[in-house]
Design brief:
Strand order of the largest sheet: 1-2-9-4-7
Shape: globular
Radius of gyration: 16 Å
Number of strands: 11
Number of helices: 3
Largest sheet: 5 strands, antiparallel
Strand content: 35-45%
């Protein structure tokens, strides 16, 4: 009997599947998915070369895996230096792990018809952050002088929806 060896991506998606299905919804699930993601970050065998290619116009999404029942999606976002997202929130929980490079995140909270800065961080390789709507309004920028790749696990089927973004915010930001 011959046994196929699991690829690093298969091992990651198996670990994520177990975390998603083995944890209760909410913060417990986000924390379980974060713990499952951490050991895989930085593994140079995880992504194929074409999954590490950016786009000069904007950050690029590579869908790596969607659970057959749509319970979660794994995507690699590739950011060239200086690329940024709009200010946005998400359709579902999200866990982000920096694979290479660095991401600068600014978090906001909505106060009436304004956004107020509610914190910021710079995350380097191996750093994991969990987001849980509502209250997950943020903007992410690659502030590194090199390409940044982050792995995002969303609690939605991004192939079906096209994105994990619920809303983009074009409100004034106040201090």
């Amino acid at each position: 009997m011959t046994t196929a060896l699991a690829t690093p991506l298969t091992a990651l998606t198996d670990d994520l599947d177990a975390a998603v299905r083995g944890a209760h919804p909410g913060r417990t699930r986000v924390d379980a998915v974060a713990r499952a993601l951490v050991p895989h970050l930085g593994d140079p065998r995880l992504l194929r070369p074409e999954q590490c290619v950016g786009d000069p116009a904007h950050y690029r999404q590579h869908v790596l895996h969607v659970a057959p029942d749509g319970a979660f999606s794994l995507v690699a976002l590739v950011w060239l230096p200086g690329q940024t997202t709009p200010i946005h929130d998400h359709l579902s929980w999200c866990v982000v792990g920096v694979h290479t490079g660095a991401e600068h995140e600014i978090r906001y909270r909505r106060v009436g018809e304004h956004l107020v800065v509610d914190g910021e961080d710079v995350a380097g390789p191996g750093t994991v952050t969990g987001l849980l709507p509502p209250g997950d309004i943020h903007r992410v920028t690659n502030t590194a002088p090199v390409t940044t790749i982050s792995l995002h696990v969303y609690g939605v089927d991004v192939r079906r929806l096209g994105s994990s973004i619920r809303r983009r915010y074009d409100l004034p930001v106040t201090d």
